[in-house]
Structures are given as C-alpha cells and as structure tokens.
Design a protein that fits this description.
2 helices; HIT family, subunit A; alpha+beta; five-stranded antiparallel beta sheet; two-stranded antiparallel ribbon; 7 strands
Amino acid sequence: MNYEKWLIKEYKYWGIYLHKNQYYLGRVYIWAKRKDALDFFDMTKEEQEEYFKIGKELKKALRKLFKPDLYNYATLANISPHLHTHFIPRYKKLRKFEGVVFNDKRWGKNYAPYDYNFKISEEILIKIKNEMKKSLSKI
C-alpha cells in the first residue's frame, strides 16, 4: 500500500496520515519519522515538543472542519510495531460529508471494536485529506 498518498502534513519528526477507515470522520495517525522509534516514552525531547504541537493543531483543524465532541488517542503498535498514535475524533450525533453519513455508534464507549469493513470511495477519502490539509495550513 502506498501510505505516502495519504500524507496530510509533514513535520520535521512526524507525519500526519489519513486513516483509510473513516468510520470516525477525520481519523488520522501521527507517524514518527525516526526509523527506530517504537516506544512512546522513548521519544526525544524534540519529538515530544513537535508531537504536542501537532496534537493541538489537529484539534483546531478538526474542530473547524467536523466539530467533534471528543477525541480518543491510541498508541498501541500491535499491528504496526512503530511509534505512532491514532487520533480519533468522536461524535455524539451524525455527521455528513460529501453526501456520506458518518454515525459514531460507539459514542460513550471505547472506539474499538468498530466497523473494520466501513468503506467510502477513494474520491471521498481524497476530499477528506485535502480538506484537512487545507485546514491545517491555516493554523
């Protein structure tokens, strides 16, 4: 899979990528650029500073775009053993984007398990990515 296609914004130590399963509208992950990065608590001071800057920027950008009610964060590395964090917007009520309805049926609960088979067209994925890119560029 070409993950670079889903890159939203690149930083010195991190990249923000659109998660291909948009069951949670605006879900992204923040991926460490350092090849040997694995454990969250082994971040360098510079990585930490940039990581928290990115988190604040993402919250602002998502608030403008989709108005999430809450955010969940998951740093697991079970399937992809590399330092990254899933940034998961949560919604009390339905959201619509480009005619697609997004329904957070697990509101008030852990984000997982969710519908792993949830699919939207690549065209809509690209529109979400581009809107997020545009929103982040204004921060």
